[in-house]
Design brief:
Small GTPase required for proper nuclear import of RNA polymerase II and III (RNAPII and RNAPIII). May act at an RNAP assembly step prior to nuclear import. The protein is α/β, with parallel strands linked by helices. It contains twelve helices and seven strands. The protein has one domain: P-loop containing nucleotide triphosphate hydrolases (Rossmann fold). Helix content is 39%, strand content 12%. A seven-stranded parallel beta sheet has the order 3-2-4-1-5-6-7, sandwiched between helices. Strand 5, helix 7 and strand 6 form a beta-alpha-beta unit. Helix 2 crosses helix 3 and helix 3 crosses helix 4. The longest helix has 18 residues. It is globular, with a radius of gyration of 20 Å. The termini are far apart. The structure holds guanosine-5'-triphosphate and magnesium ion. The site of guanosine-5'-triphosphate has 21 residues, from helix 1.
Length: 303
């Protein structure tokens, strides 16, 4: 049996791919997670392979070499330079080109029997919400006997306030219904969440950040979120309250949207996330199906 995990999620405004540059606060951290994931599999004495499907990925971001790289087929730089496309049109072109030349990918994947592929995807949200590329890719992988699941990373800053959170939830839901495969939502960069509730940062002042308050975002109780509205300092236009209420109702009616916390600085956290992914796609189902580890609350203690 072969397995593939698509690592998806929104990009930030502006790409900062160089790890030495300032951290890009709104990028989900897909590429970073992908590499930690593979290193962790190695530590567990398991084999995994990196597949890069981001035609704009920069070379220096690869501390783990991809076994398959879309840029060997088509790169965004070339498409933009030679065909005069902008970054978004260029990405669409690259994916169309990939699907038209799917035998290239099929051949490249052919050599990896009994394997576990971790696929780093680009961050353009349109790719997940309204283009047919990823669903077609998944169908093709399924035809090849590759069992595919997806993780959707949303950055922990989305927990800073409920409006950002709603936007993260809605994008996750939209991607989920578009792909229709086993799916896990992940709240990434938990290392950036302030541990100290007395922290005077903006998020902490709003009382919406800090480990103490995380639970309500990881496993959202919409009514709780809704009741957070109208707090002192909430400058939102009251006309939006009805809309928020409707979104809250939607979240409540679709309890699929919960998030697993991911803190790359904790190997336990990676362990938990990976065992959830394994469980979701029934990795090694010929053996006993695995129960996911209990969510390690030790890391995010709720007093
Ligand atoms: N503090 C912290 N920073 C992170 C983490 N993961 C990624 N970053 C930083 O966030 C930025 C973006 O990370 P990437 O992994 O390139 O994000 P991406 O989702 O692949 O971005 P795109 O490919 O542009 O969509 C980089 O500057 C990383 O160093 C994390 O777990 N914690
Ligand atoms: Mg990336």
């Amino acid at each position: 049996m072969r397995y593939a995990v698509l690592v998806t999620g929104p990009a930030g405004a502006g790409k900062s791919r160089n790890p030495n540059q300032n951290h890009n606060p709104t990028s989900a951290g897909k590429s970073t997670f992908t590499r930690s994931y593979l290193n962790h599999l190695t530590a567990l004495k398991r084999t995994g392979h990196l597949v890069n499907l981001d035609p704009a990925a920069s070379e220096e971001s690869f501390e783990v070499e991809p076994v398959i790289d879309i840029k060997d087929l088509v790169s965004l730089e070339d498409v933009m330079g030679e065909l005069g496309y902008g970054p978004n049109g260029g990405l669409v072109y690259c994916f169309e080109y990939l699907l038209e030349n799917f035998d290239w990918l099929e051949e490249a994947l052919g050599g990896y029997e009994d394997d576990y592929l971790v696929i780093d995807c680009p961050g353009q949200i349109e790719l997940y919400t309204h283009h047919p590329f990823l669903p077609t890719l998944v169908q093709n992988l399924t035809k090849m006997g590759i069992r595919t699941s997806a993780v959707y990373l949303v950055e922990s800053q989305f927990m800073e306030d409920k409006y950002k959170f709603f936007s993260g939830v809605l994008s996750a839901m939209s991607a989920m219904v578009n792909l229709e495969i086993p799916w896990i939502n992940i709240m990434s960069k938990m290392d950036l969440v302030t541990a100290d509730p007395d922290d005077s940062s903006r998020g902490a002042r709003n009382g919406l950040r800090g480990r103490r308050n995380i639970a309500r975002y990881l496993d959202p109780d919409p009514l709780l979120l809704a009741s957070a509205r109208g707090q002192e300092g909430d400058t939102a236009n009251p006309r939006f309250h009805a809309l928020n209420q409707a979104i809250v109702q939607l979240i409540e009616d679709h309890p699929l949207v919960s998030f697993l916390p991911l803190d790359l600085t904790s190997s336990d956290s990676l362990d938990t996330v990976i065992s959830h992914i394994d469980y979701t796609m029934q990795y090694g189902e010929d053996e006993e199906p695995k129960e996911p580890h209990d969510l390690d609350e030790g890391d995010f203690e709720l007093e």
